[in-house]
Design a protein that fits this description.
By secondary structure, the protein is an alpha/beta fold. The protein has helices at 6-11, 39-42, 132-139, 153-161, 163-205, 223-231, 233-256, 263-287, 406-418; strands at 25-27, 48-50, 70-72, 93-95, 118-120, 145-146, 149-150, 306-307, 313-318, 323-328, 339-343, 347-352, 355-360, 371-374, 381-386, 390-391, 400-401. β1 (25-27), α2 and β2 form a beta-alpha-beta unit.
């Protein structure tokens, strides 16, 4: 069952930065609270308080809430209006919908709350009394609204005129209700006593393994038998199924059983639901099995491809640098301490938060020369794995891995030294080429340097006149 604690109030005071002493509005609905306590000491500045749909049986510990304006106690187990006249001076609205208020005369205690304007009593036993509305309207003359309906002036005048007669009727109905309520309490107590006695009998006759033993002197099962039971999971599963069926039958019987709507029946229902929830938790704990570890290496010694963290990845062969590069898309903001990398000659394994990622490599790599780093932009894990020594041939672009044993490397060097390859050259073209005549260009003399041909006039020209005063042409 729930209780009002400081932690509960702080969790519901997030709108006030979890500060409770200056809290003005608090909502504690549907918390299975049975008692109203501590609020008047911790939250004295409260103006609005929601406590609907709980199991509160009495109005108490609210006398110090001087600033309280609205109190909601709907759907609780309250049977009487009390403890609101002293302290709650500013109360303007009170909601007591669907409770168990049968003493309608207890509304007289609200006469001292002079600011009370709205009152809700619908869904209570007293709301079924003849003359209920007239009695409340005449008793609480400061009210403006009752059960969501406005009180008119003519209605109040009529209620005041009929008040003596109505009051007598209300007292008789209250008396009948109180007698009926006492009988219901006795019946509930009797049923609870019978259930307790039945439970004690079952505890006496059943053993620790759930079997029945009618004779006290009968021998209980030995430790060997109990070990056999533990070692047989099929029998345990069968017992769990039986218990589940029994619980289902009991639950169906409980819900089909007719019962009165009383505070005790509400408490009984809640306790039954709590017990059912605990039984369900126990069964789920039994069903939980230890998950077997993931198989990373087969029985034949072959490494398997595993991606338990379900991460995207890319594997590429960098031929220029003669290495294999693995790009694993780990979460960007994951701490590097949660990542563990293990590079082997034929596979690479990365543990991400305890979940293995394993990938078989297409070629043999050098674990000692491998390196891993996180990308600064994406946060990806990049693993660089150099390949084992290779020989690159001119005719083929692909590289062939060669085992890097010392004997084989020596043999290869000896063969290379013995077999010297020479280039064949045409003997007719062994002379060195003339570098100067590789590009032949025509020699163009500049126009200014070239001398213009001299034109010597012929004397036979009839128009020629030899003037000695004219200087000769250069």
């Amino acid at each position: 069952m729930g209780r009002i604690t400081e932690d509960l109030i702080r969790r519901n005071a997030e709108h006030n930065d979890c500060i409770i002493f200056s809290l003005e509005e608090l909502s504690l609905h549907q918390q299975e609270i049975e008692r109203l306590e501590h609020i008047d000491k911790w939250c004295r500045d409260l103006k609005i308080l929601y406590l609907q749909n709980n199991l509160i049986g009495k109005i108490e510990n609210v006398s110090k809430l001087k600033k309280l304006e609205y109190l909601n106690l709907a759907l609780n187990n309250i049977e009487k209006i009390e403890n609101l006249e002293a302290g709650c001076e500013g109360l303007t609205k009170l909601d007591l919908t669907v409770n168990f208020i049968g003493e309608l005369s207890s509304v007289k205690t609200l006469q001292h709350n002079i600011h009370l304007k709205e009152l809700f009593l619908m869904g209570n036993p007293c709301a079924d009394f003849d003359g209920y509305r007239q009695f409340v309207v005449a008793t609480l003359q400061q009210l403006k609204w009752l059960d969501g309906k406005e009180i008119e002036r003519s209605e109040r005048i009529q209620a005041l005129q009929d008040f003596p007669v109505v009051e007598q009727q209300i007292r008789e109905q209250e008396k009948a209700y109180c007698l009926k309520r006492a009988k219901d309490k006795e019946e509930t107590q009797r049923k609870l006593q019978e259930e307790e006695n039945e439970g004690e009998k079952e505890g006496r006759h059943t053993g620790f393994d759930g079997r029945w033993y009618t004779d006290i002197g009968a021998t209980l099962p030995s430790s060997e038998e109990s070990k056999d039971d533990v070692q047989a999971p099929e029998t345990q599963e069968g017992e769990c199924k039986k218990k589940k069926l029994d619980n289902g039958e009991d639950d169906l019987e409980f819900w089909n059983k007719p019962s009165l709507y009383t505070p005790e029946s509400r408490l009984e229902t809640l306790r039954h639901m709590e017990k059912q929830r605990k039984d369900q938790e126990k069964l789920s704990e039994k069903k939980k099995k230890v998950k077997p570890p993931r198989v990373l290496i087969s029985e034949s010694g072959r490494a398997l491809n595993v991606n338990e963290p379900k991460l995207d990845f890319s594997l590429r062969d960098d031929e220029k640098r003669n290495q294999i590069v693995l790009d694993l898309a780990v979460y960007r903001y994951m701490d590097t301490s949660l990542i563990d990398v293990d590079v082997q000659p034929t596979y690479v394994r990365v543990m991400v938060k305890g979940k293995p990622f394993q990938l078989v490599l297409p070629a043999e790599v050098k674990p000692d020369s491998s390196s891993a780093r996180r990308a600064q932009t994406t946060g990806h894990l990049v693993v660089y794995m150099p390949k084992v020594g290779e020989v690159i041939t001119g005719c083929q672009g692909t590289s062939k891995p060669v085992k890097s044993t010392p004997d084989s490397s020596r043999e290869q060097t000896d063969k290379r030294s013995q077999q010297m390859e020479r280039l064949e050259v045409d003997p007719s073209k062994r002379a060195f080429p003339d570098v100067a005549n590789i590009v032949q260009e025509k020699k163009h003399t500049p126009r200014r340097v070239q001398a213009e041909p001299k034109i010597i006039p012929s004397e036979e020209d009839p128009d020629f006149e030899d003037n000695p005063e004219v200087p000769p042409l250069i």
